[in-house]
Amino acid sequence: MNTPQQAAQLWLTHLAVEKGLSLNTLSNYRRDVNRYLQWLEEAQISDVRDVQSLDLEKYVADMRRGFAGAPLSASSAARALSVARGLHKFCLFEGLVDTDVAAEVSPPAQSKHLPDTLSIEEVAALIDAIPSGEHATPSDLRDRALIELLYGTGARISEITSLVVDDCTDCEGVLSIRGKGNKQRIVPVGRQALRAVETYLVRGRPSLSRGQSHALFLNKRGGELSRQSAWAIIKTAAQRAGIEKEISPHTLRHSFATHMLQGGADVRVVQELLGHASVTTTQIYTHVSAENLRSVWLSSHPRN
């Protein structure tokens, strides 16, 4: 069980069974660990006990230069290193190695990147670009409810598309959302989002349903709406609204967090709402708010 391939398979099984990671997360882990295994094979390292810290440093450098594909950004290379670290830590825990050679390897330095966000007015325009009146189609009602929920809760797209009808029945203004690692959190839902979901459930979903799925959001074939379809829905709404920014489902999550902080919410409350394990992850949005404050100051103060 000392070949990297055997250790990796054991680790992935552990993540799936013991840790309960989602299929999407496991797929990402498998992709990154397979790339690491390919690198080890080309480096002619066939035993996890032979891997040294210097090898991990070379691996990260090769990722940045472009090993088996396009060069990785600092953040992507850091994620690749994180996966390799997870594998080596598991090997130590299982007694396959005596030391964790990856523990002290530093990820590449990353430039601070502030998430793209929409203004409050742009979010309103995005939602209003989707018909909701008597001439709205079932797909229109679904799309409007989807965007209202994404922005209203700050949830990840996978968390919203995995909701079932019962999650939104008599929910009394809160949703129980299952996040990463199957961790559940309670998220408040505003009146407008709830109204959009109720309208969709009454006037839209019955026309889409084929009785085959309990998913809240359905595609035109009656199956669960995919993340890719949700992305396309938001892109189409942005085009209708005349929004030229490159946006995605995650843009609405970023906008939710930024607008909450701008409205006076405590960063730890926003951390809980987003389901972040560490407040450090949430604090990126305080930088966004600071940038917004500086922009307003520069345009308003007479002695800037």
Automatic annotation (TrEMBL):
Active site location: 156, 180, 250, 253, 276, 285
Listed InterPro entries: CB, DNA_brk_join_enz, Integrase-like_cat_sf, Integrase_catalytic, Integrase_recombinase_N, Integrase_SAM-like_N, Recomb_XerD, Tyrosine_recombinase_XerC/XerD
Key words, A-Z: Cell cycle, Cell division, Chromosome partition, Cytoplasm, DNA integration, DNA recombination, DNA-binding
CDD domains named in the record: INT_XerDC_C
Domain Tyr recombinase: 113-298
One Pfam family recorded for the sequence: Phage_int_SAM_1
Recorded superkingdom: Bacteria
Predominant location category: cytoplasm
Localization: Cytoplasm
All residue ranges annotated as the Core-binding (CB) domain in the record: 2-92
Assigned protein family: Belongs to the 'phage' integrase family. XerD subfamily.
Listed NCBIfam families: PRK00283.1, recomb_XerD
Annotated function: Site-specific tyrosine recombinase, which acts by catalyzing the cutting and rejoining of the recombining DNA molecules. The XerC-XerD complex is essential to convert dimers of the bacterial chromosome into monomers to permit their segregation at cell division. It also contributes to the segregational stability of plasmids.
Quaternary assembly: Forms a cyclic heterotetrameric complex composed of two molecules of XerC and two molecules of XerD.
Protein name as it appears in the record: Tyrosine recombinase XerD
Native source species: Corynebacterium felinum
